[in-house]
Design brief:
single chain, alpha/beta, 2 domains, two-stranded antiparallel ribbon, 15 helices, 52% helix, globular, binds nicotinamide-adenine-dinucleotide, binds SN-glycerol-3-phosphate, oxidoreductase
C-alpha cells in the first residue's frame, strides 16, 4: 500500500521506517521543503531523529496533494497544535472513501479543547479514522527495539487493517475500539511525565515517583471515563503502558521538561533550548485542566502541573498542596 506520512518529526520517521520494513511504499511530507531536501540528500533526519540511517526506499514530497495522491493510509504525525493547519492543507485532496486516517500524535488542541479525532472530524467531515498509541519512543522503534502498541478504531476492519500494515517481529500491534480512551491515555500521560520529571530533577527519590504514577493513572482514568473513554483502556498499553515509559525514559521530551523545572529552570528557557522539538504535555496540561473543570473530575496532579506551568506556582508549594489534601480511602 502507498502510505503518506504527514510530518517530518521523529515519530513519523520511525513509523515510516517500520512500514518500509513491511514492504510498503512510504512518502514523507513535511512543512519545510528545504528540510525535506536535506533529509533526501543526507538520508538522515538530523534535527529530529539524529544518528539513524533512513532507508533508500523512503521518498520525500513537499506537495501534500501529491503525497496523498494514491495513498490508502494518511499518517497524522504532526504535533497537535500544528495539526489543524496541516488538515486545512490536506482538505482539498482528502478522499473520505479512499483515505484511512491514522493519528499517532498525542495531545489536546489548546484553543478548542478538542481531542484529535474531534478536530479531524471538524476539519475534514465524516472520515475513516484510527489511532495508534502505546509505549513507543521513536529512538527505539527506529532501532527496531521490540515494541507493543494498540490500534483503535470505531470500525474493527480499520483497526485490523492498521494492525496488518504495521505488525512485524519488532513491532507488535493489538487492536481496540476505544478511540477516546486511547487518545486520552496518550495525551494525559504527557502531563504526568512532566510531574515525574520534576521529581527526578529535584532528586526526590523513588517513593514519590511510584506514588505519582499510581495516582496519575487513577486520575487519567477518572477524567477519561467522564470524557467517554472506557476505564479498562487505561490499564492497557495506551494508558499505564505509555505512562510507565514516559515517566521513566531518558528519551522522553515531557519528562525532560519536568526534570529541568525540578532543577529550577523557567519554562520559556527550557522550551527555547529544545528548538522545534515538541513536548506535548506543556500544551495538553491547559486542555486537560479545562476539560477537568468542565466535567467536574477531581484532577489534583493535572491542576498542580497546570499551576506550575501557567500560574507561576513554585514546585515545593505544588508538592505540599498534593501531600496535604484531605485524608481519604484509596
Ligand atoms: N517522538 C516520539 O517518540 C513519539 C512517540 C509517540 C508519539 N509521539 C507523538 O507524535 C507527535 C509528533 O511528535 P514528534 O516526536 O514526531 O515531533 P518532533 O518533536 O520530533 O518534531 C516536531 C515536528 O513539528 C513540526 N512542525 C514544526 N513547526 C510546524 C508548523 N508550523 N506546522 C507543521 N508542523 C510543524 C516539525 O516539522 C516536526 O515534524 C506528537 O504528538 C508526539 O507526542 C512522539
Ligand atoms: O518523548 P515524549 O515525552 O514526547 O514521549 C514519546 C512517546 O509518547 C512515548 O510513548
Amino acid at each position: 500500500m502507498k502510505i503518506a506520512v504527514l510530518s517530518d518529526g521523529a515519530w513519523g520517521t520511525a513509523l515510516a521506517m517500520n512500514l518500509i520494513d513491511n514492504g510498503h511504499e512510504v512518502v514523507s511530507w513535511g512543512p519545510f521543503p528545504d528540510y525535506l531536501d536535506e533529509m533526501r540528500e543526507k538520508r538522515e533526519n538530523v534535527r529530529f531523529l539524529p544518528g539513524v540511517k533512513l532507508p533508500e526506499a523512503l521518498s520525500f514530497e513537499a506537495d501534500i496533494g501529491r503525497a496523498a495522491d494514491g495513498a490508502g493510509l494518511l499518517l497524522l504525525a504532526t504535533p497537535t497544535q500544528y495539526l489543524r493547519g496541516v488538515l486545512d492543507k490536506l482538505k482539498p485532496h482528502f478522499d473520505p472513501q479512499r483515505h484511512l486516517l491514522l493519528d499517532v500524535a498525542k495531545g489536546i488542541e489548546v484553543d478548542s479543547r478538542l481531542l484529535i479525532s474531534e478536530m479531524v472530524r471538524q476539519v475534514l467531515g465524516p472520515n475513516r479514522y484510527a489511532v495508534l498509541s502505546g509505549p513507543s519512543h521513536a529512538e527505539e522503534v527506529s532501532r527496531r527495539v521490540p515494541t507493543a502498541v494498540v490500534a483503535a478504531s470505531a470500525n474493527p476492519a480499520d483497526a485490523e487493517l492498521v494492525q496488518q500494515l504495521f505488525i512485524n517481529d519488532n513491532f507488535r500491534v493489538y487492536t481496540g475500539s476505544d478511540v477516546v480512551g486511547v487518545e486520552l491515555g496518550g495525551a494525559l500521560k504527557n502531563v504526568m511525565a512532566i510531574a515525574a520529571g520534576i521529581i527526578d530533577g529535584m532528586k526526590l527519590g523513588d517513593n514519590p515517583k511510584a506514588a505519582l504514577m499510581t495516582r496519575g493513572i487513577s486520575e487519567m482514568g477518572r477524567l477519561g471515563e467522564l470524557l467517554g473513554g472506557k476505564a479498562q483502556t487505561f490499564s492497557g498499553l495506551s494508558g499505564i503502558g505509555d505512562l510507565i515509559v514516559t515517566c521513566t525514559s531518558g528519551h522522553s521530551r515531557n519528562r525532560h521538561v519536568g526534570e529541568e523545572l525540578g532543577r529550577g529552570k523557567r519554562l520559556p528557557e527550557i522550551l527555547s533550548s529544545m528548538g522545534m522539538v515538541v513536548a506535548e504535555g506543556v500544551t495538553t496540561a491547559r486542555g486537560a485542566y479545562t476539560l477537568a473543570r468542565r466535567t467536574g473530575a477531581e484532577t489534583p496532579i493535572i491542576d498542580e502541573i497546570h499551576a506550575i506551568l501557567y500560574e507561576d506556582r513554585n514546585v515545593p508549594d505544588a508538592i505540599r498542596n498534593l501531600m496535604s489534601r484531605s485524608a481519604k480511602p484509596e
